[in-house]
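[Meeting: bench + compute handoff]

Bench side (C.D.) handed over the final construct sequence. Compute side (W.E.) agreed to return the predicted structure before the next meeting so the bench team could plan truncations. Sequence as handed over:
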Amino acid sequence: MQQEKRHFQRVGIYLSGQLITGTGDTLPVEVVDVSLQGLRVTWLSSAAKAPPTGSVEFSFKANEDSPPIILSGEIIRHSPSLQEENLTEAGIRITYLSVDDLALLRRLLLLNSGQDDLDATELESLVDKIAAALSS
């Protein structure tokens, strides 16, 4: 039986965003799900000459009037989408997120999760992970 590696709940959400590759290319993407640790995105397979790899910058808005959530991440996997044949899907691990952007992301997750205790539980887990990383 496979053990779940995720420490944070993923919330299904559909938002447009921009992925900026290490070479500076901008790729329009759709956020499929998001957590405090990472996100899954899709893009039209024809939009990219080659699938982006490695470190990326990413931005998206919770809604038209909200400030953008900007983060740095690392593409940990990419593959053709199983749902639609003309889409590519990628998993992005968040490697950097400012305190302000973390607050925006937490609020987005809380509002879309349907769970009142998600905020406190996941924040505690995130603080524990950050403290462990700082002590090593």
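W.E. noted at the follow-up: Residues 11-135 form a domain with the Thrombin, subunit H fold (CATH 2.40.10.220). C.D. will use this when planning the next construct.
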